[in-house]
Amino acid sequence: MPLEIARDIQITFDCADPAGLAAFWSEALGYQVQAPPPGFATWDQALDAWGVPPERRNDASAAVDPKGAGPRLFFQRVPEGKTAKNRVHLDLRAAPGLGGDERMAALETEASRLVAHGAVRVERQDPAPPLGAGHIVMTDPEGNEFCLD
User: Is 130 left (phi over 0), alpha (psi -120 to 50) or beta?
Assistant: First the structure.
């Protein structure tokens, strides 16, 4: 019997630039910005049809797994900025099954790729056996922490 997930989940980010973060996380995860609804070739066409004024067109955006396996990421504009460290964060599994120098080299490569897309490198934690395999702490373009693991 195939394993079934108990709930379909969505991960929501409060942010200042929903379209920008949707584009960043799509790049980081191999996702894609969610396509416009059926009957519309672009989001602008849909928003025009719905009467959404230009100043409200970046109030929300979403990124989806093109294979349909991962959770939808939803980005919503909020007026306040980020004020504290995230209590929950994403770990991007950039080096599964690798260890030691090979693992850290793979994490460094991915860190460089994401910095080119707006991420900020915060710190590197080198391997500390027996429990610590090593990781790199980063932030997305709006300062949300995540780890390359």
Answer: alpha
